[in-house]
Amino acid sequence: MIEFAVDVKGLTRVFDTFVAVDHIDLRVATGTVFGFLGPNGAGKSTTIRMLCGILRPSGGTGTVGGFDIATQTEQLKSNIGYMSQRFSLYEELTVEENLRFFAGIYNVRGAQRQARIAWAVEMAGLRGREHLKTRELAGGWRQRLALGCAVLHEPPILFLDEPTSGVDPASRRNFWEMIGELSSRGITVFVTTHYMDEAEHCDELALIYGGRLVATGSPATLKHRYMSRALLALECGDLMSAFAALKPEPALTGVALFGTALHLTADDETAARVAVAARLQAAGISIQRLERIEPSLEDTFVAIVEASGSNGARA
Amino acid sequence: MNAPPADTARRRRRRLSLRTIRAIMRREFTDVRRDRRSLILTFLYPICMLVMYGYGIRYDVDNVPLTILDYDHSAESRDLTEHMLRSGYFQLVRWAQNERDLNRDLTTDASKAAVVIPRQFAAHVRAGEPVTVQAIIDGSDSNTATIAQGYLLAMMAGYSGTVVARQSGAAAAPLSASPIELKSRIWYNPELKSVNFIVPGIIAVIMMIVGAIMTAMSIVKEKERGTMEQILVSPIRPLEMMVGKIFPYVIIAFIDLVIIVCAGYLIFHVPIKGSLLQLTALSLLYLTSSLGIGVFVSTIADTMQSAMLAAIFISLLPSVLLSGFVFPIENMPVVIQLITYLFPGRYFVTAIRGVYLKGVGLSVLWPEALMLLCFSTAIVWLSASRFQEKLG
Questions:
Q1: Is the Cβ–Cβ distance between A248 and A272 less than 8 Å?
Q2: Is the domain covering B64-177 a CATH 1.20.58.100 domain?
Q3: Tens digit of pLDDT for each residue in A279-298?
Q4: What is the pTM of this model?
Q5: What are A's interface residues with B at a Cβ cutoff of 8 A?
Q6: Please, where in chain A does CATH 3.30.70.100 lie?
Q7: A298: exposed, middle or buried (C-beta count within 10 Å: 0-12, 13-18, 19+)?
Q8: Set of chain A residues whose Cβ sits within 8 Å of the Cβ of B236
């Protein structure tokens, strides 16, 4: 068994003059669930497409499943499963026909084919719906069928590109249970998402921003490393005015809007509390709640992105 | 296909997988079967076209509506008009009383042609002097106009002949009247039935629709839906994908060929004079070129809409307009004639008409067959290498 399912160095992709992925180094230990996070347009899909052997890198080298991403794409492709946010199934085919089709192109045959198709139907909860047209399935079922098709040939590595976008929360939870199940069988899962709650399910995370890798580590490590400062949650009357009033405060290292509250970061919690109280009083805003909280991954990423500053921020 | 890029050399080690190709093919067939639009396009359309063009396009003209304005009202003028009407090529709309009547008939489309016989017509004829009869022809439908003009000229010439003959004495007449007589016989299509000409042309059009348009659409549809990407991440080879996608359309095109040939024979009694085998071989060669065009279009278009437009522009229009199917190539301006050499339609229509109507074979049609072969090879090579590049 190879140690790293994904091992790439200096991975780069340039479209004309736009650098979509800029010298990325990635190592994904075999058997882990690896979360690849970043805002839209940060280079997630471009990276995943290069790792799957369907987009040629402009630079960099590496292996996926032990196969070279530039020269051994065919063996590489036999060893991976891929599912994108579009759940690319044939809508006019039935559930079973879709599974048979993917069995065909992945050369899954004989008794194994029957067994795998039965397994996928079971896993996707589609027993009794084998003869429904895929078009007639609801989003969550289509997503699970797409996953079933992607792992029909029992790939050791599974790439999921925003697999839960556009799916209801219950199906999302269900889907992550399936990912956990696959992972427990030793499959390496490489998943991109921009849902931070999903990132908590991952063993390892990497954050890409503006084509560059800005942070890597387990969720706990990241929170600890990047959030050594105090994090305060502020609830008050007029959030936007409070935001404007606190932004210039030197005692605060960061001010960010989080739903119905402001999240403030500071090196010195006591000094920050005093300064906030003074500024809001001057602005005529009453404080409803101001307390220290545990940082979430979202806070962590806001901090990381702010720290990486303008060099990562590109249009 | 012929010359894979160097970096695919490694991949060539694996043989093509029939199982993979079969999976692609089976899905393609299911797709066509379940999609009512493509079913109609595939099987109903050829028959519709055959019936539409078979009954609709007619180059043969008979019963041209004719208005006659006879100022002379003499025995001779009646003789002339009867001569014309008896021929069966014209149908009398009415005897006009004046020029206004005649104008009205032509402007309201009541008649397509008019003949004006001048006063003193009989007097001139009897005196053996030349006399001018005016013919007015509606030129808005140039094809009918040309043919009507031809008929009128022939009528006049015939009538003049009889008059001269009658005057120079009955016995010796016919020889001296027209010392050289043209007797034309029409070969290959003796009844001059347009449909005989059109059935082979329809084969050219349908092959393009199935080969180029349907193939391009089916590939681009997968790009648009994202299923192409899903297939690309599988270890499938571009050639397997291409063969699997194309083969169903070869079969469909072949069924269409049979439908057109049979329907042409059963409905319009268009016989095949030449060899059925050569007809099939030429059609397959032409089909290869249209499949090549289809794959080529799929490599340049990203949406079904643009694929449709590009395919119509590159394949369908030339096969209708520049092949000689509807408009004779000889009548085109020289520049357009030169352009027709760039499209396979011209070679195919010439060749298949030869096989169909003249019963000639490759011994005569080899230049067309050779050109088709060159074109097919070139376009298949171009599209296959582009396809491979896109997928590789």
A1: no
A2: no
A3: 988 888 888 889 888 888 88
A4: 0.76
A5: 52-54, 71-75, 77-78, 80, 82, 84, 86, 88-93, 97, 100-107, 109, 149, 159
A6: 228-294
A7: middle
A8: 105
